[in-house]
Amino acid sequence: MMAGASRDHNRAVGNAFTRLSNQLRNRDCEVFSSDMRVEIFPMTHYTYPDIVGVCGEQQYDDETQTLANPMLIIEVSSPSTVNYDRDEKFIRYPRITSLHEYVLIAQAIPRLESYVRQPNVTWIYTLIEGLEGQIELASIGCTLSLADVYRNVKFETRDQNEA
Question: What is the β-pairing status of strands 45-47 and 37-40?
Protein backbone atom coordinates (compact mmCIF):
# COMPACT_ATOMS: atom_id res chain seq x y z
CA MET A 1 0.00 0.00 0.00
CA MET A 2 1.38 3.34 -1.00
CA ALA A 3 0.18 6.66 0.36
CA GLY A 4 0.75 9.89 -1.49
CA ALA A 5 0.93 8.70 -5.08
CA SER A 6 2.33 11.05 -7.72
CA ARG A 7 0.30 13.48 -9.78
CA ASP A 8 0.69 11.35 -12.93
CA HIS A 9 -0.28 8.19 -11.05
CA ASN A 10 -3.44 9.96 -9.89
CA ARG A 11 -4.13 11.23 -13.40
CA ALA A 12 -3.82 7.77 -14.94
CA VAL A 13 -6.02 6.18 -12.25
CA GLY A 14 -8.58 8.97 -12.45
CA ASN A 15 -8.69 8.88 -16.24
CA ALA A 16 -9.14 5.10 -16.37
CA PHE A 17 -11.71 5.13 -13.57
CA THR A 18 -13.75 7.90 -15.21
CA ARG A 19 -13.69 6.23 -18.63
CA LEU A 20 -14.81 2.89 -17.20
CA SER A 21 -17.40 4.42 -14.89
CA ASN A 22 -18.96 6.32 -17.78
CA GLN A 23 -19.22 3.13 -19.86
CA LEU A 24 -20.90 1.28 -17.00
CA ARG A 25 -23.75 3.74 -16.49
CA ASN A 26 -27.11 2.01 -16.42
CA ARG A 27 -25.48 -1.44 -16.27
CA ASP A 28 -25.20 -4.04 -13.55
CA CYS A 29 -21.45 -3.41 -13.18
CA GLU A 30 -19.48 -0.94 -11.11
CA VAL A 31 -15.88 0.19 -10.65
CA PHE A 32 -14.34 1.35 -7.40
CA SER A 33 -11.22 3.40 -6.79
CA SER A 34 -8.29 2.69 -4.50
CA ASP A 35 -10.20 2.91 -1.24
CA MET A 36 -12.07 -0.36 -1.86
CA ARG A 37 -10.41 -3.17 0.04
CA VAL A 38 -10.26 -6.54 -1.75
CA GLU A 39 -10.06 -9.88 -0.01
CA ILE A 40 -7.66 -12.52 -1.26
CA PHE A 41 -9.30 -15.79 -0.34
CA PRO A 42 -9.28 -17.40 2.08
CA MET A 43 -8.99 -14.17 4.06
CA THR A 44 -5.22 -14.39 4.17
CA HIS A 45 -4.44 -11.02 2.65
CA TYR A 46 -6.12 -7.76 1.71
CA THR A 47 -5.14 -5.21 -0.92
CA TYR A 48 -6.36 -1.82 -2.09
CA PRO A 49 -6.07 -1.95 -5.91
CA ASP A 50 -6.14 1.29 -7.89
CA ILE A 51 -9.36 0.19 -9.65
CA VAL A 52 -11.65 -2.77 -9.02
CA GLY A 53 -14.51 -3.86 -11.28
CA VAL A 54 -17.42 -6.12 -10.41
CA CYS A 55 -20.64 -7.13 -12.16
CA GLY A 56 -23.80 -8.60 -10.72
CA GLU A 57 -24.29 -9.11 -7.01
CA GLN A 58 -21.45 -7.71 -4.95
CA GLN A 59 -20.24 -9.91 -2.12
CA TYR A 60 -18.52 -8.57 0.97
CA ASP A 61 -16.82 -10.38 3.83
CA ASP A 62 -18.29 -7.79 6.19
CA GLU A 63 -20.96 -5.10 5.85
CA THR A 64 -19.55 -3.15 2.87
CA GLN A 65 -15.86 -2.81 3.58
CA THR A 66 -14.10 -5.71 1.84
CA LEU A 67 -15.11 -6.82 -1.65
CA ALA A 68 -14.87 -10.60 -1.98
CA ASN A 69 -15.78 -11.07 -5.67
CA PRO A 70 -13.89 -8.63 -7.94
CA MET A 71 -13.84 -9.51 -11.63
CA LEU A 72 -11.27 -6.93 -12.72
CA ILE A 73 -8.29 -5.45 -10.90
CA ILE A 74 -6.25 -2.60 -12.37
CA GLU A 75 -2.99 -1.33 -10.91
CA VAL A 76 -1.08 1.72 -12.14
CA SER A 77 2.58 0.84 -11.63
CA SER A 78 5.40 3.27 -11.07
CA PRO A 79 9.00 2.23 -11.75
CA SER A 80 9.36 1.55 -8.01
CA THR A 81 6.22 -0.64 -7.71
CA VAL A 82 6.08 -2.51 -11.02
CA ASN A 83 7.93 -5.60 -9.78
CA TYR A 84 5.70 -5.86 -6.73
CA ASP A 85 2.56 -5.39 -8.87
CA ARG A 86 3.72 -7.88 -11.51
CA ASP A 87 5.18 -10.53 -9.22
CA GLU A 88 4.00 -10.46 -5.62
CA LYS A 89 0.45 -9.33 -6.28
CA PHE A 90 0.03 -11.61 -9.30
CA ILE A 91 1.05 -14.59 -7.17
CA ARG A 92 -1.81 -13.77 -4.79
CA TYR A 93 -4.53 -12.46 -7.12
CA PRO A 94 -5.27 -15.79 -8.87
CA ARG A 95 -6.53 -17.07 -5.49
CA ILE A 96 -9.55 -14.81 -6.02
CA THR A 97 -11.82 -17.21 -7.89
CA SER A 98 -14.04 -14.44 -9.28
CA LEU A 99 -11.08 -12.55 -10.82
CA HIS A 100 -11.06 -12.73 -14.63
CA GLU A 101 -8.69 -9.90 -15.56
CA TYR A 102 -5.64 -8.26 -14.02
CA VAL A 103 -4.34 -5.15 -15.77
CA LEU A 104 -1.10 -3.27 -15.14
CA ILE A 105 -0.87 0.27 -16.47
CA ALA A 106 2.64 1.72 -16.57
CA GLN A 107 2.84 5.22 -15.13
CA ALA A 108 6.00 6.43 -16.87
CA ILE A 109 5.39 5.19 -20.44
CA PRO A 110 2.27 4.37 -22.51
CA ARG A 111 2.12 0.63 -21.82
CA LEU A 112 -0.57 -1.71 -20.57
CA GLU A 113 -0.19 -5.37 -19.62
CA SER A 114 -3.22 -7.60 -19.35
CA TYR A 115 -3.64 -11.04 -17.82
CA VAL A 116 -6.92 -12.85 -18.61
CA ARG A 117 -7.92 -16.05 -16.79
CA GLN A 118 -8.80 -18.95 -19.07
CA PRO A 119 -11.25 -21.78 -18.27
CA ASN A 120 -8.31 -24.15 -17.63
CA VAL A 121 -6.99 -21.73 -14.97
CA THR A 122 -4.08 -20.54 -17.11
CA TRP A 123 -3.65 -16.84 -17.89
CA ILE A 124 -3.24 -15.19 -21.30
CA TYR A 125 -0.82 -12.25 -21.33
CA THR A 126 -1.24 -9.28 -23.68
CA LEU A 127 1.07 -6.28 -24.03
CA ILE A 128 -0.22 -3.04 -25.55
CA GLU A 129 2.13 -0.12 -26.15
CA GLY A 130 1.63 3.35 -27.57
CA LEU A 131 -1.10 5.92 -27.23
CA GLU A 132 -3.02 4.47 -30.19
CA GLY A 133 -3.57 1.16 -28.36
CA GLN A 134 -6.70 0.00 -26.60
CA ILE A 135 -7.94 -3.03 -24.71
CA GLU A 136 -11.27 -4.79 -24.43
CA LEU A 137 -12.05 -5.61 -20.81
CA ALA A 138 -14.41 -8.53 -21.31
CA SER A 139 -14.99 -9.08 -17.58
CA ILE A 140 -16.96 -5.83 -17.34
CA GLY A 141 -17.73 -5.23 -21.03
CA CYS A 142 -15.69 -2.05 -21.49
CA THR A 143 -12.99 -0.67 -23.77
CA LEU A 144 -10.07 1.31 -22.44
CA SER A 145 -7.82 3.30 -24.77
CA LEU A 146 -4.32 4.29 -23.75
CA ALA A 147 -4.94 7.79 -25.11
CA ASP A 148 -7.76 8.17 -22.57
CA VAL A 149 -5.72 6.69 -19.71
CA TYR A 150 -2.73 8.95 -20.34
CA ARG A 151 -4.64 12.19 -20.94
CA ASN A 152 -2.54 14.97 -19.30
CA VAL A 153 0.10 12.52 -18.04
CA LYS A 154 3.63 13.87 -18.48
CA PHE A 155 6.04 11.16 -19.55
CA GLU A 156 9.56 11.25 -18.22
CA THR A 157 12.17 11.70 -20.90
CA ARG A 158 14.98 9.24 -20.36
CA ASP A 159 18.55 9.59 -21.45
CA GLN A 160 19.25 7.02 -24.18
CA ASN A 161 22.36 5.92 -22.26
CA GLU A 162 20.30 4.86 -19.20
CA ALA A 163 19.74 1.15 -18.80
Answer: antiparallel
- Residue pLDDT, tens place only, 33-67: 988 988 876 656 788 899 999 999 999 887 668 89
Do you find a cis peptide bond into 42, omega within 30 degrees of 0?
yes
Q: How far apart are CA 8 and CA 155, in angstroms?
A: 9
Q: Is residue 110 part of a domain?
A: yes
Q: What is the CATH number of the domain that holds 107?
A: 3.90.1570.10
Question: With 0-12 CB in 10 A as exposed, 13-18 as middle and 19+ as buried, what is 101?
Answer: buried
Pair 130, 110: CB distance under 8 Å: yes
In this model, does residue 117 exceed pLDDT 90? yes
Residue 117 belongs to what domain range? Answer: 7-149
- Cα gap 120→34, rounded to integer Å: 30
